[in-house]
Amino acid sequence: MGVSLIWVYLTLPIPIYGTIWVLLLAYMTKFIPYGIRAASSSMIQINKELEEASFTAGGTWFQTFRKVILPLLMPGFTAGWIYISIIALRELSTSILLYSYNSTVLSIMAFDLWEGGQYTYVCALGVLMVLLLVAMAFTARKLGAKIGIAE
Amino acid sequence: MAEKRDMVQIASLEKYFGEDKERVHVLKGVTLNIPEGSLYTFLGPSGCGKTTTLRCVAGLERPDGGKISIAGQTVFASGERVYVPTNKRPIGMVFQSYAIWPHMTVAENVAYPLTIQRRPKDEVKRRVGDVLKIVGLDGLEDRPAPKLSGGQQQRVAFARARQRAQGDVAGRAVKQS
Q: Residue B95: which of A53, A72, A149 has the nearest Cβ?
């Protein structure tokens, strides 16, 4: 995955290799399937009649999307976004091949410190990351539970 | 008025479901006229096409043949390739599942047909209040819609359908146990 991305962005005449943008692109490529899963599962949960009710009430397609579908999808989408940021935050295998000195992500930082033998720093960083991830996971869970009761 | 005009006219309506071998002929030339101001009931066993007929009138299902007009306006005619989309038909509908939007309050649900037409706020408030009084749900305006009993949800759905159907067709596919 990382190697193929290096190969693509070194050959393509887009000057993003070695910047933070190549990491963004890599994460997007890698996590799109997770995003689609989260999105489609929340779409399945919406009863078709909820849409049709909006049409029979005189709503256009756009009004139906904005006022009915989107608000119902939002909790599921947000939960998906948080879930993806959680796995992206601790992603190492792709980042390690694509990072540079001005785009060091947390997982790379931890790896560097560990290689440099600064175990105390690694521990401190690890604790901070765990706390952050726990907070995010908790929010995601709460949002996920919320769509559960919405019919 | 000597003679009441027909509100809904359905002429030789045809509808198939499924493809090829599993093709089922559901509506076989349904023809009926419903005069203005009358109450009409479809009665029949499960799967005989009651809901399908209603969905064709609402425009949620596209018939394979025939003609439908509502209040004198042709909304579907297979020969002339007329097809008016659901949101442009003068109808109101109560769904079998009631289809109450769970992210809105009772008042927001009932106000929806008016707010999307950008009616003035005081008119919306007045009409929502009026119709909720009719169905006996006044005082529950700010209750989240899913926190109602089944019967109350049904009344919200009816109130919502009525908003747009002032004097028009209020089709109703209600399943009563």
A: A53
Percentage of chain A surpassing pLDDT 90?
4
- Residues 6 or more apart from B74 whose CB is under 8 A from it? B67, B68, B80, B82, B84
Write out the two tokens for B95: 């769904």
Span A82-94, pLDDT tens digits = 888 888 888 888 8
The region, left, alpha or beta by phi > 0 then psi within -120 to 50, assigned to residue A74 is alpha
Q: In chain B, positions 110-129, which contact chain A (CB-CB < 8 Å)? A: 112-113, 116-117
Q: Helices (H) and strands (E) in chain B — how many of each? A: 4, 7
The kind and range of the H/E element at B155 are: helix B150-164
CB-CB contact of B157 with B149 (8 Å): no
State the pLDDT confidence band at A151, using cuts at 50, 70 and 90: very low
Q: Are B135 and B77 in contact (CB under 8 A)?
A: no
Every domain range in chain B assigned CATH 3.40.50.300: 6-89
The ipTM is: 0.82
Q: Please say whether the structural domain B6-89 has been given the CATH code 3.40.50.300.
A: yes
Asked if A66 and A123 count as a contact pair (C-beta separation under 8 A), the reply is no
Q: Report how far residue B62's alpha carbon sits from residue B76's, in angstroms, rounded to the nearest whole number.
A: 9
- Residue-wise pLDDT tens digits, B61-92: 899 999 998 888 889 998 888 898 888 888 88
Is the CB of B92 inside 8 Å of chain A's CB atoms? yes
Q: Do A56 and B101 touch (CB under 8 A)?
A: no
Best mutation site among A46, A56, A64 for testing chain B: the one with the most B CBs within 10 Å? A56
Query: Does A63 contact B at CB distance below 8 Å?
Result: yes
Chain A residues within 8 A of B87 when measuring between CB atoms:
55-60
